[in-house]
Amino acid sequence: MTVLPYKDLKLGKKEQVAKMFDNISHKYDFLNHFLSLGIDIYWRKKAIKLLSSSKPKYILDIATGTGDFAIEALKLAPDKVIGVDISAGMLKYGNEKIVKLGLQHKIELILGDSEKLPFDDNTFDAITVSFGVRNFENLEKGLIDMFRVLKPGGKALVLEFSKPRSFPMKQLYNFYFKNILPVLGKMFSKDNTAYTYLPESVNAFPDGEDFLKVFENSGFKKTKCIPLTFGISSIYIGEK
């Protein structure tokens, strides 16, 4: 089932997701930290640490948004991090942040499609995606293109929301996601549907073992899933 942000628009998911992120880009960073109570910062730090033993020198961050994951990846001491996103609005704020931090020599953000990455085969030592794969129009197609541009022996790391299964976290999570998050998101972002789409897209996403099957079908091996914070999100790792 394809979940769309704007059900009344006659646009594909890719175009709708780009429009949605353009609309909320001015409040995206604030809402990320506010609505997650800052836990998203911890998740990103933990995810990046899992790549430290690989010492990747050339990193691609897909669905980079405003560049938070790309900036966190600098802790791995790479030569270069390239961030790709389909939302020009998100990249605008990301570039402003990078200039403010003086990181233009280390991070480059470009407009691009996750399913048609503008890079040669076997280019990157590591690829990261933070809260982005559930927005792919075609999940397997996006993962296959990630596999294509990754060097043999390179690692792909995906950080994504998942669904808690245990009481009482499952019930608390569902109540917050369905009743509180959409109201707060609408209030601050002024977008009527973006934070209704978020829980709908998480609910439809094949998390846990189901995602690992898609990951492996896309070519990745030595895959594993690491649940975080009672299963609210998960880290997936695979190798080429």
Quick summary:
By secondary structure, this protein is an alpha/beta fold.
3D structure, described in words:
The protein is an alpha/beta fold and 240 residues long. It has one domain: Rossmann fold (3-Layer(aba) Sandwich), CATH 3.40.50. The chain has nine helices and seven strands, in the order H-H-H-E-H-E-H-E-E-H-E-H-H-H-E-E. Strands 3-2-1-4-5-7-6 form a seven-stranded mixed β-sheet, sandwiched between helices. Helix 6 (139-149) links the parallel strand 4 and strand 5. Helix 7 runs antiparallel to helix 8. It is globular and about 45 Å long. It starts with 12 loop residues before the first helix and ends with a strand. The mean pLDDT is 94.
Give keywords.
single chain, 240 residues, alpha/beta, Rossmann fold, 9 helices, 21% strand
Ordered list of secondary-structure elements with their pairings:
Blueprint (H helix, E strand, L loop, with lengths): L12 H12 L3 H8 L3 H11 L8 E5 L5 H5 L7 E6 L2 H14 L5 E5 L12 E7 L8 H11 E12 L7 H21 L4 H11 L4 H9 L3 E8 L4 E7 L1
Parallel strand pairs: 1-2, 1-4, 2-3, 4-5
Antiparallel strand pairs: 5-7, 6-7
> What's the CATH topology name?
Rossmann fold
How many structurally independent domains? 1
Q: Quick one: CATH superfamily?
A: Vaccinia Virus protein VP39
Order of helices and strands: HHHEHEHEEHEHHHEE
**Total of helices:** 9
Strands, total number? 7
